Amino acid sequence: MCPRYQPLTEDWRTFWGPGSPRIVCDEQLAAGGATHRAHGNEDQEEEIKGHLERMPTVGVALFGVGRAGGIHFPNLASNNDVSIRWLVDVTAMKDKALMLCTKYGVDTARFLSVEDSQKVFDDEETHAVIIGTPTRFHEELIKRAVRAGKDVFCEKPITFSTDAVVSCYAEAQKYGRILFCGFNRRFDADHIRLREKVQSGQLGNLRFVHYMARDCKQVSDYIRTSGGIFIDSAIHMLDYVPWLVGEKPSSLVVTGSCTSSVAAVYEQVDDVDSTIINLQFPSGCYAVLEITRELPAHFVSCYHRYEVVGTEDCILMHKTNDNTLISFAMDGSDRQEQATPSYWCSYKMEMDCFIRVVQGLEECPLTPESVIQAHALAELCRTSLKEQRFVSAEDMG
């Protein structure tokens, strides 16, 4: 187990800021990530710097070197507080694992086939497990890890059912370990700024949130194993929007259809490729979430658009390769701010945050209750669609 170190001073958070990543990408800083900058005096800076230099290195094992693992590996490799000890995947992925080590100059990692993965859990120098495997393997790996005394970072979703998510958190609590869910939107500078503007009261009373996602085409094998559009894709916003609004939804209703070029594959697994989720909050605020899982071929990346309407102001935000955060005042004037061009920095910031949580430098910013709520909402969305009905507060419990 990695020792939990206590900060040298009680006001260390005034240096890093609560929940703030220690390493900030240049584009995050240029786009408003200043909320994450150190802002203490020079004495505080030296004190914190000296403390961090004495922190133990966190030994980690990465399960899965596919898409998610390929995102997390360079972020782990660039963190001076991390030693990558193990890469675990099926034997066919060994060459990719070795390629990642060569590309990012990692000479501490050893590859293990899935069959030999028990070595990770027996290794006393491995303090944390990073799970980037397909979702169907998450629950077993989480429980094996926490029982072995390892802290866990798990890509979203934790698993397919809310009951299983609750069980995973109960197991982590039983063994006194951290379970950190990878909702990277909470670590994206633009999403953070948007929430700060809402929570500061700049918009007045919140009336309406509109979110639109246009994702790239999914391959058939992924569609068949993803768990569906709600638990795999919409769950990001089912976590973020309640956090943005500051309330738990009181009701929801969902519609959906299959209209993409691979509609037949979605229909085979009882899924949809396009959906509209309507949420209502106790304050009266409405949220409409639109998700389409296929763009025309000439679009090289997905894009997301937000519109947040209050009684005093309105904000539009576009997440594309040329992003702008636009605030419209009630008098018709507008104020533009440059936004970051992608989510890549958010993955680094969430991983750096996880490592600091393991070290005991800060509390986990994602509570079990909030993660369970997002998974429960995803399940209720599916219920609403399949049963073609309104889901009320009573259904939500």
UniProtKB/TrEMBL annotation:
Residues 195-391 form the Gfo/Idh/MocA-like oxidoreductase C-terminal domain. GO terms for molecular function: nucleotide binding; oxidoreductase activity. Keywords: Oxidoreductase. The keyword Oxidoreductase applies. Residues 59-183 form the Gfo/Idh/MocA-like oxidoreductase N-terminal domain. GO terms for biological process: NADPH regeneration. The keyword Oxidoreductase applies. It holds the Pfam family GFO_IDH_MocA. Gene3D superfamilies: Dihydrodipicolinate Reductase, domain 2, NAD(P)-binding Rossmann-like Domain. GO terms for cellular component: cytoplasm. This is Gfo/Idh/MocA-like oxidoreductase N-terminal domain-containing protein. It comes from Pomacea canaliculata. The lineage of its organism: Eukaryota, Metazoa, Spiralia, Lophotrochozoa, Mollusca.
